[in-house]
Design brief:
The complex is a heterodimer of chains A (about 575) and B (about 625). With about 575 residues, chain A is an alpha/beta fold. Chain A has helices spanning about 1-10, 15-50, 55-100, 105-110, 110-155, 155-160, 165-205, 205-210, 215-265, 270-315, 375-380, 405-410, 425-430, 440-445, 450-455, 475-490, 505-520, 530-535, 555-560, 560-575; strands at about 335-345, 350-360, 365-370, 390-395, 395-400, 410-415, 490-495, 520-525, 540-545, 545-550. Chain A starts with a helix and ends in an 8-residue tail after the last helix. Chain B is an alpha/beta fold and about 625 residues long. Chain B is elongated. The chains are: A alpha/beta (about 575), B alpha/beta (about 625). At the A-B interface, helix 2, helix 3, helix 5, helix 7 and helix 8 of A face helix 2, helix 3, helix 5, helix 7 and helix 8 of B.
Chain lengths: ~575, ~625
């Protein structure tokens, strides 16, 4: 119930509309109940007793009731949709805002693919339940109740007897609804397995061919394919059994009405018109009962979905703005780490009492083996994470005292794996500064050595990239990411050097682009190229969460230690990879 | 992955081989050949379908008995006060209900069975066919699109074959039966009630296109929204790094609003549909009441109260199949499109096929020659020209050259993923085109740049090319390439699951497993496309060692990126612009001071590394041991 209570605020703004919808539901159900009564009245009064004057008005009443009922059904559905869509809109918007505010730690933990499918699926079930489910559920319940009451009023004995079939039918409907959910989820599982099997085969087609394993693959697929068919057949069998059974129970009701009702009519206890009306009511009852089974399971799913959505909304972003945080202007880029410790899981220290001072405009290369804490260190600056202990200061101010936006505007980030959004190149470059002029975008692209390539595309800067557009090579993506960072023109730059290989010309172009990017800024570079290290003002060597060496490249190469060891290894094995032409 | 052909740049990958994925394709008449091909899949189950049709006919007839019996009961017995006759009719009614239950269950079951089986067959045929198609097909067609054909399109067909076909046949039968019965009961009354048919038709016509368009818009905006959501989540780190949350929120809200409006609009149309049908249905009832009443009034002795009641009941049943059929029509349309898309895949011809009379190759010694080979991916644009290469049994041949020079193409030709336009490739003096693909490839070990591992255990992955390999052989292969130690350190050793549900391995570890996989297949000839991705220094030395093991004692073609591998080669071919420009050993080529020496300098001599590297090599090895 608490879930529903939390949903109420979303409904509140639309309550007059929802009330109107409810009124229309009521009116519609009443009109629906009237139709058999009119028929009954026509049969008795006109056909039996011969009051022919009433024939035309009676017939007209049937049509009128249907038209009015239709209008009600239309109105209730439309008004409810308006309300439901408003609710869904608000919920979705809030969800989106929340997802954008959640910290890196959250995204480290969840599988994004799963998160995406969960969010979209949950909101969608909710959308169905909130509009169709709500209205139809109410309408069906009222209809069932109304029909039962009408039948009882006409002849309670016949009503009781003819409704005997109702309890087993309701049970059958609900039993089927539960069972079928289980079988369909099995079908869904098998679908996923089938898709995965095909997907893997397609992705690995070259390996399959190379090892001449086509037959083995076909056999494997046949297994999955057969299992899929079996699961489907199980679901179909269950479905066809229960659907036909429910129909049979309904037919049983008609048999009873005919038999017992017929006897009652012969005895003169009810009129012929009543008998006909009973028959019609019974026919009208079957559909709502069946629908209720479906709606109940839909509601259950929606509730579960809603619970998950609220759970997600309740996850607090770990990195939050302090109340009274200051919006800082352009910083000069004096970075100090004071005795900083940090861990992802609270147990294994990734940074262990690290202290470091970087002067404005200094170029710092951070060196170390995988897992030494290089990336974690730089991620503390823009507050992607907060340290467990110690402070990160920029221009003498704790980063936690600044507003997130103003802090992050002062730091440009070039990640190792460039991520481009599926929009135009222009928008991708202007991602951090959507208001940048075209001239500024072009200037950044030129500095990033990507302008010529962009101009060579048919749509130039308006070319859409990504899934629905042009696919860029790794080197091109990297330069777009550099242009994006250039346009930010922030005093501090964090650069995670790309390790993937590109050809010599691209390599040289990227190098030139980076030189432009780094000029005049405080740079923290996670270095993977020796040349970068050699050009740095300060080299910081990290090992197991600690800074083990620090100094200019010249100083460090004179010392015995990890720096020399890494350089040696890099020279020996990495030689063939820088650029990797041969 | 072996690189795809490089023509047209990376941006050119569109729908490619499958024309029906092209944007803006219009729905037009479906080729009758498509139906024939689909029917061929159904034919083996003709017997069952006949049974199903029979059961449908029974169901249709039996379900009509209800109103008729009601009429008989009212007219013959209730009106005349005959209680025992009423009992009889009620018993008959009960019997028809039971019969209806059984026949409709049987009918649904049989038809669904046929549908599922046919679809299973179609999927199987598709998959089998995909295993035969040449790489050109995969080069030009995104895998997502092929996947769609095999999953959603086959599903659309399934809907038609199982539920669609049942509804179509059963409802048509029912409709005809109802009309016949009504006509038999009373011709004029029947004709008057049929007056509603054109009305129904008009309603259907009116809604069909509008509803379809409205829902298409809903689907489109929903897809937009999901795409936006997906991208926002994938790119959330960049968004936060560039403090762009507000702007994204605005963009999302406008998509969100578009979706809301599309939904409301669709409801505005769709919610009108069923009430409209109901009004028409009520109109029918009124007509029957009014006209039936007039007939009775006019003294027509053929019309009774029971008949009017039966007519009303029949009319109610009349509208249900019409509603269903209108939905089946949509189903039919999308199924026809799906069928066409499936047949399009089945129609793709494999480019490399075994010649009639191709012989199975015995175990080869491994002497390989390329004789004047010319080949390209697009007609008129050769990628490699007039290539002559040779490798004696047991030799390592290194191919070097710039990206795009044609190295990958050469090894794809050697694996016979394509056939050359001109010239020939000989193995032990035998033209590759004269032997079966299977017998050649099963002796070939290929290690691709991007190591693709299948989901499953590590053990299964290593024995992928040689499913009969014993556990000892698998482990021996892993030991030989130096993968044994890290595999054993994993939670479940060789039985550790990898892939989405299992552990994630580093790039270097994946490469070592791919090496073990190649070694386990014990190929006579090895093709190695060395990876260029940066891996950490320790793994790198391991891979060098593993490469050495892998190349030992077999003919090998290597696209080499590592200095150590190149030095090891018996012969180096320098490929430039699709031609062999130099040939020789590392030393002889350096001495020649030509293209190879130039490449070598730009690559390995960057910061005197070549010199430093040699001394460092020994130093680091001792450091590691």
């Amino acid at each position: 119930m608490s879930v529903l209570r939390r949903l109420w605020p979303y409904y509140r703004p639309g309550w007059p509309m929802a009330l109107l919808s409810l009124l229309l539901v009521l009116l519609g159900v009443c009109l629906g109940l009237m139709q058999p009564q009119i028929i009954r009245w026509v049969v008795d009064l006109v056909l039996q007793q011969g009051a022919w004057d009433w024939l035309l008005p009676g017939a007209a009443a049937v049509v009128l009731a249907a038209v009015l009922q239709g209008a009600c059904r239309y109105g209730q559905r439309y008004t409810m949709e308006l309300v439901a869509q408003q609710v869904i809109y608000a919920l979705r918007s809030e969800l989106y805002r929340h997802l954008q505010s959640l910290s890196f730690r959250f995204y480290d933990r969840v599988q994004t693919g799963e998160l995406i499918s969960r969010v979209t699926a949950d909101v969608d079930t909710l959308r169905q339940a909130a509009s169709v489910g709500m209205v139809n559920g109410l309408m069906n319940l009222l209809t069932i109740g109304g029909i039962v009451v009408a039948m009882l009023l006409m002849d309670w004995r016949l009503a009781l007897v003819s409704l005997l079939f109702l309890p087993p039918m309701v049970m059958a409907v609900f039993y089927y609804a539960t069972r079928s959910r289980a079988t369909w989820s099995q079908v869904q599982q098998e679908t996923a397995r089938l898709t995965a099997a095909v997907q893997e085969n397609l992705a690995g087609v070259r390996v399959v061919r190379a090892f001449a394993q086509e037959e083995a693959q076909v056999e494997r697929f046949e297994q999955v394919n057969r299992a899929f068919r079996e699961a489907n057949l199980r679901a179909v069998r269950l479905n066809s059994f229960w659907t036909t059974t429910i129909n049979f129970l309904a037919a049983l009701g008609s048999v009873i009405v005919l038999w017992y009702g017929g006897h009652r009519a012969i005895e003169g206890a009810i009129s012929l018109g009543t008998l006909v009306a009973f028959n019609t009511y019974l026919a009208n009852l079957i559909h709502p009962v069946r629908m209720m089974g479906w709606i109940t399971s839909m509601m259950a799913r929606a509730r579960a979905g809603l619970q998950r959505i609220f759970e997600l909304l309740d996850t607090r972003p770990e990195v939050q703005e302090k109340p009274g945080a200051v919006a800082v202007g352009r910083l000069s880029g004096h970075v100090v780490l004071e005795d900083v410790s940090f861990s992802y899981d609270g147990v294994h220290k990734v940074l262990d009492h690290v202290s470091l001072e970087i002067l404005p405009g200094q170029r710092v290369a951070i060196l170390g083996l995988t897992g030494s804490g290089k990336s974690s260190l730089v991620q503390l600056l823009p507050r992607f994470y907060d340290p467990d202990a110690g402070r990160v200061l920029i221009d003498g101010m704790d980063v936690r005292d600044m507003t997130l936006e103003s802090l992050r505007r002062n730091i440009a980030v070039v990640p190792q794996e460039p991520f481009l959004f599926s929009t135009t190149l222009r928008e991708n470059i202007a991602y951090g500064r959507p208001d940048a002029t075209m001239a500024e975008v072009v200037a950044a692209a030129k500095a990033a050595q990507i302008h010529e390539f962009i101009e060579s595309l048919p749509d130039g800067y308006e070319t859409v990239v990504g899934e629905r557009g042009v696919d860029l090579s790794g080197g091109q993506k990297q330069r777009v990411a550099i242009a994006r960072a250039l346009l930010m023109d922030s005093p501090i730059l964090i650069l995670d050097e790309f390790t993937s290989a590109v050809d010599v010309q691209t390599e040289a172009a990227i190098r030139r682009a980076l030189q432009r990017l780094m000029a005049g800024r405080t740079c923290l570079i996670i270095a993977s190229r020796l040349s970068t290290v050699q050009e740095a003002d300060l080299v910081v060597v990290m090992d197991r969460g600690r800074i083990v060496q620090q100094g200019t490249p010249a100083e460090l190469s004179r010392q015995e230690g990890l720096y020399r060891e890494i350089c040696r290894l890099q020279l020996q094995t990495g030689a063939g990879k820088e650029g990797a032409v041969i | 992955m072996i690189h795809g052909p490089r023509y047209g740049g990376r941006g050119s990958r569109g729908p490619g081989g499958l024309a029906l994925d092209a944007p803006g394709i219009r729905l037009r008449e479906v080729d009758p050949r498509v139906y024939r091909q689909v029917l061929a899949f159904v034919r083996p189950y003709t017997g069952r379908l006949l049974l199903a049709t029979f059961l449908m006919a029974v169901t249709a007839l039996v379900s009509l008995a209800g109103p008729y019996l009601t009429k008989v009961a009212i007219d013959e017995f209730v009106a005349r006060g005959d209680a025992s006759g009423l009992n009889l009719v009620a018993a008959a009614f009960f019997a028809t209900a039971v019969l209806n239950w059984l026949s409709s269950y049987g009918q649904t079951w049989v038809v669904s069975w046929v549908g599922q089986t046919v679809v299973c067959d179609v999927r199987s045929a598709l998959f089998r066919h995909l295993q035969r198609l040449s790489f050109r097909f995969y080069d030009t067609t995104a895998t997502g699109r092929i996947l769609t054909r095999l999953t959603s399109d086959v599903d659309a067909l399934n809907q038609l074959v199982s539920s669609g076909l049942v509804t179509l046949v059963a409802d048509t039968l029912l409709l005809v039966a109802i009309m016949v019965t009504m006509l038999k009961m009373h011709v004029r009354l029947a004709l008057v009630s049929f007056l509603t048919i054109p009305l129904i038709w008009a309603v259907l016509r009116f809604f069909q296109r509008r509803v379809r368009d409205a829902f298409r818009e809903v689907r489109r905006t929903t897809a937009d929204m999901n795409a936006s959501l997906e991208e926002s989540i994938s790119g959330v780190r960049i968004t936060q790094a560039f403090a762009r949350e507000e702007r994204n929120q605005e963009a999302f809200d406008s998509i969100n609003e578009a979706n809301r409006q599309a939904n409301v609009h669709a409801t505005a149309i769709w919610a009108m549909f069923f009430p409209a049908i109901d009004v028409v249905s009520a109109l029918g009832v009124t007509l029957v009441l009014w006209y039936g009443g007039r007939l009775i009034l006019g003294g027509d002795t053929g019309v009774t109260v029971g008949q009017v009641t039966a007519f009303i009941l029949y009319l109610n049943r009349f509208f249900q199949p019409i509603r269903d059929l209108s939905q089946v029509y949509n189903l039919l349309q999308s199924a026809a499109v799906a069928a066409e898309r499936i047949v399009e895949v089945l129609d793709q011809q494999p480019e490399v096929e075994d010649r009639p009379g191709a012989v199975a190759l015995g175990r080869v010694r491994g002497e390989i020659r390329f004789e004047n080979v010319t080949f390209g991916y697009k007609p008129g644009q050769p990628v490699v020209r007039d290539i002559n290469l040779k490798a004696l049994p047991g030799e390592t041949v290194a191919l070097v050259g710039h990206t795009g020079a044609g190295k990958s193409t050469l090894i794809q030709l050697l694996a016979r993923f394509y056939d050359p336009w001109e010239g020939r490739i000989l193995v032990d003096g035998r033209d590759l085109r004269e032997v079966t693909q299977h017998s050649w490839r099963s002796q070939l070990g290929i290690v691709l740049q991007d190591t693709f591992l299948f989901s499953g255990t590590i053990r299964d992955n290593i024995r992928f090319g040689n499913p009969r390999a014993s556990d000892e052989e698998v482990e021996a292969a892993a030991r030989a390439v130096g993968a044994d130690a890290f595999i054993r350190a994993l939670p479940r050793g060789y039985d550790t699951e990898i892939g989405e549900r299992g552990v994630t391995l580093s790039v270097g570890q994946r490469q070592l497993i791919a090496f073990a996989r190649a070694l386990c297949a014990d190929p006579a000839v090895l093709i190695l496309d060395e990876a260029t991705a940066n891996i950490d220094t320790y793994t790198e030395t391991q891979i060098q060692e593993a490469t050495r093991r892998l190349l030992q004692g077999r003919t090998a073609f290597v696209i080499a990126h590592r200095l150590s591998t190149i030095r090891q080669a018996d012969r180096i071919y320098v490929i430039d612009n699709g031609r062999v420009v130099e040939e020789g050993t590392h030393e002889s080529l350096l001495a020649r001071n030509g293209r190879y020496a130039e490449l070598y300098r730009s690559q390995f001599a960057g910061s005197d590394a070549a010199v430093a590297g040699e001394s460092a090599e020994t130093a680091s090895r001792t450091a590691l041991e």
